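[Backbone geometry]
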Amino acid sequence: MASKGISFLNGKVSNGTVMLSWYKTTLLFESNEQDEFSEFSVYRKCADDFAFGSDYEEFFCGMLPESSDLIYCGPVECSNNRKYLFQDKQAEMGKVYAYFVKSRTLPAVGPVPLKIRDPEVWWSYETLKSRLLQLQQDYPAMVNLQTSGRTVEGREIFSLKMGSGVTALGLAGAMHPGEAGPELIISALEKILHESPEILKKCAIVVIPSINIDVRERLAQGRPWYLRKNIAGVDLNRNFPVNWDNIGKEYGLSTDDPDSATYRGASPASEPETKAVMKFFADCKPAVIFSFHALAGICDIPAIGAGNVDQSDSEFYELSKRFVNAYGTGLHPELTPDDSWLAFAGSGGSLLCWAWQELRIPAFDLELSMTIAPEALQKCRIDHTDRCLLEEYSIRHSRAIINILSNFHLTQ
């Protein structure tokens, strides 16, 4: 008899429902064993103490089914005499769970960790695609939707141009898949098209709303922990062909270490996602680029500018300040711009540094900020961003985008 009856236990979340799948082990399948699989026990443990951004896969190592709740015991339908599918429709939105499954007499297999995220806050690839197609269908004269490349796994990297103006604002989302992206950007653009379409007669917006799509899909399907790299294990915001010899040491990590979360890749622009972003912005040549970062859903000022720019370049500094102040005032009309709104960093291989060095385009990362209300800041940090918070910030960013477009003449 085999030591375990189950192999290839896997799980994902789809539209708020947990879907587990597993197979008979090769030995028991080949022996045509049936009685061992006449019933299964499914266990679920709630991991309330899991902390997004601090805990990772190792949090679940060593978990045992004995401390879990039995949520089902009985037969499970089999396909092809080997594969089993089980749905847990009782799992709660926002919760993190560990699942175990055992056949009738043999030991349990697991854990499979999953977080049930709100599909309106973390879009699947199919949702992203349908929202973009709907946008083009609703505003055919204003929205030009294209494919700028494909990911490592072959998914389309969508880009769009909105408006008929020559001067353009560039936006980039989900460079790091666990950070702000299409849910915020597309919602803001929908508001502009609906409420202020006239602004797009003089200016344009060019956008890649979701760059790191393959790994973003892992998060939408329930991977609980923060994810930063693409599916090939490369931090895309360290992969651009600029300052390549500048080895970054941020966060106690190293960009030349393949095991690091900030690994830059084997060579400059080695990743198809990086190539797609470079080609898109090189072709569009926007006047400025804002790249959306921060944990789990929303971002704000301060804006981080390219650190490879000589800080004594007063012309660049003043231009950066005008762009950032215009965006920040749209985000927070109740605040007065000050020097804290703009900082300079930007690692070797970053979009910021590449955009300025190669295209002479000022570019900025939008991160977490103390301008965010403390309760909202905490929600964002621990992956509790909800629909209300996302809606608030889509309104704020729509105002910021309109403010930039309205004040382009001040930045020339």
About this structure: Residues 125-411 form a domain with the Aminopeptidase fold (CATH 3.40.630.10). Residues 188 and 394 are 5 Å apart (CA to CA). The first helix runs from residue 26 to 30.
